[in-house]
Amino acid sequence: MTWLSNLSLRKKLMLISVTPTLIALLLMLGSNLAMERYGYRAIEKRDLLVTAKMLSFNIGVFLRYEAQFAGMTLLEATSANPQIDYACILDNQGQLFSEYRRPGSDFATVPNQPIGANSYFDSNGLHVFHPVESAGEPLGTLYLHARPEGYLRLLRQEQLTVIALLLVSTLIALLFAFRVQRLIYDPITQLAGAATTIARTNDYSLRVVKQGEDELGDLVDQFNEMLRRIQERKSALNREIQVREGTEHQLMAANEELQFEIGQRVQAEGQLGVLLEDLERKNAELQDFAYVVSHDLKAPLRGISSLTTWLMKDYSEVLDEKGGKYLQQLKDRTRRMHAFIEGILQYSRLGRASMNMEMVDSQQVLEQVFETLNPPESMRLVVPKPLPLVYYDKLYLLQVFQNLVGNALQHTESPEGTITVTYTHHGNAWEFSVQDTGVGIAPQHHDRIFRIFQSLKTRQGDDASGIGLTLVKKIVERNGGTIRVDSRPGEGSTFYFTVPIPTGPDKTAGTISVFILDPNEDYTRHTTKLLSNLGHRVQSAATWTLGKSILAQAAFAPEVLLLDPTHMAEDIGHVLRELCLAFPDVVIIACVPASGENGLALATYPAILGTITKPFTAEKMDAILQASNHSPIGKVQAHD
Predict the structure, then answer these.
(1) pTM for the whole thing?
(2) Which of 205, 274, 310, 550 has most Cβ atoms within 10 angstroms of its Cβ?
């Protein structure tokens, strides 16, 4: 059917319109011809049978008496029917008795005689056999042969008429189909032509003329609407392209300028790198120089101080009051120079030495510092609440407290004074405060006091070097903290500094940091494996002294602590205090033996938020840990 697919749309529409009509006409006319043919044959056969019946009735007498001539005469009467061209009478033995042959007939042979009356058509014409009887006695058979020329003539006339009607009907159908197909073909042709023109010229302003309100009219409207939208989008796109082209030019210019700036910046960074390396080298040299000079100058100063002391002691009788005063000034200034050098030595050492981080009891460090400074009995140290454990270099924390407390002692002029040290918990850091009742500092000097060699006291005999607060600031910031001062003249000063609280590495959702404090190694090993299989992070220790060291080295901040208070070698109260100070958000759960012999009244320790009986299942412990991880402090309930 490829040829049909390749036909034009006009021819396809013509075929669609005419073919059904032609098929219907052919079927109708063919059935009519068949019915006419069958009807004509039936009439011819009926007429010839009537003729045979009449002749058989009259021939019976002549056949009985063998009146051959009379039989022939009767047969000649068939000549009145122009269709019959041969007639004969056969006796019972099938022998010819009499016959009639129309002049010019080419009839040749009588067919075999059937039994009884019979008639049929074949290619030679119509054959009729009818028995001849007399008084009920069979005497022979009458045979008639007819050539249906009239029937055939009429049939041909019918066929010619049918053909003529078919041709006329086909012509009318073609004319009507041609007229109708134009109503379909023309709009489609216009759409196709418009589409071809638009594809070739990209002219979306073209429109197709609508010819009707049918489906093709709707198609034309939609096609025109599509062209309108495409034209609008094309116009908008052209405007956007123009804007983008302008923007691209601007971007290219900006990019060239940026490339130039990048080149300059790269060059500047290279120069900066060289300068930084040189600065680091010079800083290192300067630190080394300050360290060496500070270290080497201490020996001559000690000699001058010793020599001044000897002069004042050995020549006190020789020297007058003015000479003794000069020697005392020399000794004071030598001591001040020694303080300067010692400060420089400490400052340079701070940048050179590494830090030894560990869990430090800040309360103990503060008490040691206050005792070392040997303050007057009138000075009081007030600590409203025990200070927490912090993760710090103990020597540096001692220097921080020593400088802040020493600074408070130096700037308290009244006979009696108070130094108050306390702390607060802010997020992931402790904030310590050191408050004194001294002379105070004017706001314009708050930044100045943290600069090196910037001391607000200039009186002779003062040992202030102007380095102490600078050292404090450098130590605090090196440990990730901040320092500030709040002070007014005559109202005392409060120094605030922060200490970060160590946190463990990032963990996945549902993971809990658990610390086990229990002397039973089998239980600790079993519980560690159990909790690790549940996905939790676990550390353990047999004693709190060892636990502090582990927590400090691993920077492990426990969220839940499991301990057996009934078998601890250390004081449970002291352990709980240090735990809560070091980790204020930790949830403490007591794991007691199944025998129930606790040996301690756990209700007297509010830090313990619940109990669980040993041994326990993984599911039970995981449920308790998850509950503690999602509950606020003081709301956890851990039951058997």
Answers:
(1) 0.41
(2) 550
